Amino acid sequence: MNLRTLFLLLIVVAIGALAALNWTTLSTPTTVSLGVTSIVAPLGLLMLGLTAVLAVFFVAYVLALHGSVLVETRRHTKELSAQRELADKAEASRFTELRGFLESQQTALLARMDALEARMNARARESENVTAAYVGQLEDQLQRRGGPQGPVNPPIEPSLRL
């Protein structure tokens, strides 16, 4: 029980105790003016009755306010869960798009690497062929000059330089 509820309960108990202790005074008939006319009635009971009616309306107002807050909270909770679900779906679709993009980029990268590897292999074969041709040309020149009896360091022709 919070402090406000305890305070209101103490006030209701105090009003009840005062009414019980002063019942004879509250029920004594007097002339009560209603503005347009006057009536003879117990003023204390009229005031006590109006206080009770006011308390009933106050409790009804508080319950209605509490009910509307609960309905509004439930509505906000539903909207929030719907928005959360929508955000989760959007995030999942973004991840799916990102996965597709990365896979396409990976495929393109692998194709490019395969092409580069093929070009490197072709250049390596070409380089091997050129080197073999140069070596063959050098061997031919050595054989034409007399084989192993020829000069130890034969001059290299300018067309054979790299």
UniProtKB/TrEMBL annotation:
The chain crosses the membrane at residues 43-65. Residues 142-162 are annotated as: Disordered. Residues 151-162 have a biased composition (Pro residues). It comes from the Bacteria. Keywords: Membrane, Transmembrane, Transmembrane helix. This is Signal transduction histidine kinase. It comes from Melaminivora alkalimesophila.
